[in-house]
Amino acid sequence: MKSTALTKIHESLGAKMVPFAGYLMPVSYEGVTIEHQTVRESVGVFDVSHMGEFLIEGPNALALIQQVSSNDASKLTIGKAQYSCLPNENGGIVDDLIIYRIKEETYLLVVNASNIEKDWNHISKYNQKHGAIMRNISEGFSLLAIQGPMAVEAMQSLTSVDLAAIKFYNFEVGDFAGIPHVIISATGYTGSGGFEIYCKNEEVEEIWSKVLEAGASFGIKPIGLAARDTLRLEMGYCLYGNDIDDNTSPLEAGLGWITKFSKDFVNSEALAKEKEKPLSKKLVGFKLDERGIPRQGYEIVTEDGEKIGEVTSGTMSPSLGLGIGLGYVPPALAVPDSQIHIQIRKKLVPATVIKLPFYKN
Question: What residue ranges do the domains of the chain occupy?
Fold first, then answer.
């Protein structure tokens, strides 16, 4: 089991530590509801250093990225980031990721912790043709997510960079908490605004300490992975391994907006044909009309109990106070206000398909 550079600090703060994607990670400190509301109302800080980072460099870096990713990375200028996915050869998804253009011929790919080796092998396979310089820097770098509506105000004293001027999915490389050359990225997985900070492992303890100090008057709290999951689910953001995987089509998952057929990429021809035909299923958000909590793997059924799909993610929404979830259903039922049922133990609980996100600022 791997540890992040902050594991001992999490333990000293009383965090409940659990194995996650090969790492020992803090799942909660005070409890998911209070941590969730902290991020929605003020500011919280997550250690997400388990995520993977690859540097792709050289004159053929863009050509490689264009081949393996679904979005159009040629649109990226220095200082911009892009959400994308890595399609596989069979119509599914190897992983979803964020691509940063750091320099003219240098890109940073941020991938899911559980997929680091798989992603590396997949991209390397296609790099045999391109010969780009690839470096897996995951082991040497840490990642903090400082999230919430007060993040800009709380963190401005730590940097000479104008945080309010960094637009969504843009980033600056600058000083932060006394450390030079830190990536300050206006990205996140919560839907409440804020930043993600990329730094070296030997720098993260000092940054963590100063972040908590600077945010103290704003009520900052350390936040665990359990609240990260409820926050992302309220926004309808996909989680790899739950809502998307090697067997789910990006089109079925509602990721057509990051699937650009203006270029050739892995399996693009088959996906283009799929786009022209009616999809067999679609990922939707739903809310329960009665009390209950939908969980991953619960069956989605008709009023008569006929199985039509499966819940891929589900929780009790701390912001809304009701059961919400994501799951795949036939296209005819993927329309907002469609009525479905969730099999929760022996009970069929009525639910309504809704337009995402669940939580709106």
Answer: 7-48+139-234, 278-354
